[in-house]
Amino acid sequence: MSNQKIKVAVAGVGFIGPVHIESIRRAGNLDVVALFHPFESEAAEKAAAMGIPKYYVDYDKMIKEEALDCVHICTPNNLHYPMAKTALLAGKHVICEKPLATTVKEAEELLALAREKKLVHAVSFNLRYYPLVRQMKKMRENGELGNVYSIMGSYLQDWLFYATDYNWRLEPDKSGDSKAIADIGSHLIDLIEYISGLSITEVMADFSTVHPTRKKPLKAVETYSGKMLSPEDYADVPIKTEDYASVLLRFSNGSKGVVTVSQVAAGRKNRLGLEIHGSNVTMSWNSETPNDLWIGKRNEANQVLMRDPSLVDKDVRSIIAYPGGHNEGFGDTSKQLFKEIYAAVREGKQPATPTYPTFEEGLRELRLCDAIVESHRKQGWVRIS
Ligand code: SOE
Prior knowledge:
Residues 6-123 form the Gfo/Idh/MocA-like oxidoreductase N-terminal domain. It is a single chain. By secondary structure, this protein is α/β, with parallel strands linked by helices. It has helices spanning 16-27, 40-50, 59-65, 80-89, 104-117, 131-141, 172-175, 180-196, 330-347, 359-378; strands at residues 6-11, 30-36, 54-56, 70-73, 93-96, 121-123, 148-156, 200-208, 213-217, 234-238, 244-251, 256-262, 271-278, 282-286, 292-296, 303-306, 382-383. It is globular, with a radius of gyration of 21 Å. The mean pLDDT is 96. The structure holds alpha-L-sorbopyranose. Residues 15-16, 157, 183-184, 187, 223, 270 line the site of alpha-L-sorbopyranose.
């Protein structure tokens, strides 16, 4: 493909769709030509607000009518599989939000189809694109970390803190069998394997549903809406999925780890924290202060590495746009991810060794998520197949 603008559509414009649209526009020579949203008046409103020339309330029609190169899938989880499949069958490259699907079988089918069609396939594990996350990976690869002794991670949020907080993620028919693990645990577990280079071999999980009954608004409410509703606006509904989960991990090198995820941790807005203890140093980082990396030492003063192109590993520089002191954050992660994916889209095919997360990693996360859910159900260790 020459230097002409790549034509993109975004399906789903709730919380994360607009993040994609903004990041696509910041990533380069790309044109968002259409969006899909199931409700006419909101679709029109959102298209006008974001300056997108066309909107569709029928996804299949959009795929048929528009001369698209690539589709971003940002809808509720249960729609990822049918929408990705339709796009691949129509010869479009696909960037899908996590989780890739709601079952392992669906994810396997999508991976096989994308390979058969020789199309670019990616899953939006955007948190890999915080520069200091990549720096941690580099420090493990170049030996600065040493052997991994143990890993401790958490992903905490509070947007589902009250029993009156509600979202489609609480409904298994839209979200799948898991809520907190599928929604945010997937990012954390992906980062752990990505940074450490280790595979999780066994898991042991314990979940709790802090609000076994929630008040479901009679009208749709978007992720992070923070809207205060009154009693006549809800119906009581039973909740089957987890608000909180802790999981013990065993890794391929014999080391151990533990992760906790919660969406009911007051004051934690969106905090992924990760600490990796190595035989040389400890590395500790969290997404609420993403431009600092704490490096812990036994016999010297601890250090804080600031995200600055001159201070990080040379391979990390490509995902830093501004010098230290000019903070970069959440939106920048997707921009950097899309730059790498669209370099492949411009070539028209998936590279032999993609630098970005693909449907393969999407499938891996579903396998891990399944094992975690099974472990909680049987209250015992589960080996990853
Ligand atoms: C909601 O918990 C959510 O939007 C997740 O779905 C995203 O993956 C995470 O990046 C932010 O929070």
